[in-house]
């Protein structure tokens, strides 16, 4: 190696060490081991000068990060100073300029040169948007393969992240191989043989040795690219799974690469494993991405100001990209992913906060303070006292609706926590202030249930109670026109309904407050239409589905969040038991006993994730089996997702009226349905459901005075499945169960399977609890200090937000 090439190698290694944060991980074995080999390869006449050059790096491994940085910078500065002439006799003849082969300039270097010369007006941004064809080693065939992976530009390649990393670190002597999992050895190649077999396959065997023993590595290929490079005498790193074959260690199809000088990509480190398509190999893609990172990562502009990075302990973006692909440690891999996830969550949080700000800065909402004195009258008329949590929630709501700034609030509470009475008090205040309130429920039966509950709660107020009207799709003809008129004239002060409330032709007189029950059943579109029915009404969203806070910050990021975290006194706990498949006959006997005592029962059929049609078929089969073989003398009903809405309504009403003893249902059994006489919830295939959904099923019973029970039958007898279900025996807190669900199963329990992914996201996951919280805080700061993101240091964030929210998203 010529002196100039040697100096260039040193410069590249030190520059890599700087980019990696002075972790002593730029080269395998550390910087000092590299320097020993590097100095040993210097020409005799240049030895003294090169030793003086790297003297500041002596003892590098034992120094602090600041000391390492100072030493690296000192050596790099020395390398940038003009070097004294080297005596001709110090340079080997083979290294004279005439003997050094001139390497053609690659397309990558050409792009880089045009950028640095100013020939490319867009600068770094334009070079990042250059097609991958501009990279060395990428021809039209590989460009087409990369396109099938969604990689078209250099930026796309930088953001083509590994699916996972294989741990090929911690090289060990051959004698210490454990033959468990992936292992790495540093060894010398003793011998290599390639033997052609029938069918055109080639078996390549290499004998490896170190000071402790020998091992064999075996590859089977159709073409031999290995034996010519794996020469005897070469020191290599070999990583893979080793097994004892014929009394000797054998690596089958391991990764390998030379040890000397260059940084390892395929062995001796955390090795990235990328998504591939036919024709692309892992080794090729690793080399390409590493080459691209070295060339372009430093050109990726960092959208986050230093103040935000420092506040939340985030890596700079170029460093995060490098560590997400080729991490120097587990800690830095996590830090790289954390930074990239933060960026993705930030654009979501900024977007939802800007959406709320636009709503709040629109037309002012009506101030509903004039009727505040009517609320104490309503509360005093109730046959019970509010819990402390209910009082805090009501106070927060009343404070907001008395302002002209539109309220957007999510009220969460577990089953039976008393959300409806809190909403009723707010609607009483709206009506007493001269405005109307609307309560929208997802189904007719729930709307009618809310209507009856409001009539019961308001009745003790006598003639001071507001007028309540029910409007659903089943109200027809003259009666429908009469109710439309009452709403338009303001005689109907509280309107309860379903989607009928957002239909054209319905006009409110003075809509001041909108209450939406079970918001996750509605899209943003329906909520927006209902808001437009009034000038700019306050909006209160109620949800009995426990949603983890981190998920709520995204699903309902444009809403404030209040939780009723206390159940009213006397609310009974459902006795929950986890049963094995062999206990099913006992469960059926218990259901029969409860029916004999005058009660009713639910039986939930197993979840069939592949198809609602298959799930309905399974429910029909189970219903027929139960009616024929288990409960031939009882009245059974059936409910499943393929039934028409009117058919489902009819079955639920029959169950409410006690015309059925047992309701066999899929997971469509309505949230919030009140059947006080039902005392048993028997769930088949309980291990297929999430904990939060099982808790929702459990909440369908226990609404009367009789003791109630939830029986969980697992169709898998595994101990893991049983132990997971036993959590429900111990825990009755829906929010705790929801957090565990999010951690164990992802967001599908709350969003549905289709929405459980994140559109346009590569790194962010719903389980990123702390990252979501931090991104929310950063978004609140940005929205407060620079609402339109007009400051120069925020322009890149603005572009990210605009690009993300151009997609057709419905995170609510």
Mean pLDDT: 82
Tell me the structural class: alpha/beta
Evaluate the radius of gyration: 35 Å
Which geometry do the CA atoms define? globular
Low-pLDDT stretches are 83-123, 752-757, 808-812
Count of helical stretches = 28
> Per DSSP, what share of the residues sits in E-state strands of 2 or more residues?
15-25%
The counted number of beta strands is 21
Could you give the order of strands across the largest sheet? 11-12-10-13-14-9-15
Percent helix, as a range, is: 40-55%
First-residue to last-residue Cα separation = 62 Å
Biggest beta sheet summary: 7 strands, parallel
Description of the structure:
There is one protein chain. This protein is an alpha/beta fold and 812 residues long. The chain is built from 28 helices and 21 strands. The protein has a seven-stranded parallel beta sheet, sandwiched between helices. Strands 16-21-20-17-19-18 form a six-stranded parallel beta sheet, sandwiched between helices. The chain has a five-stranded mixed barrel with strand order 2-3-4-6-5. The longest helix has 31 residues, at 330-360.
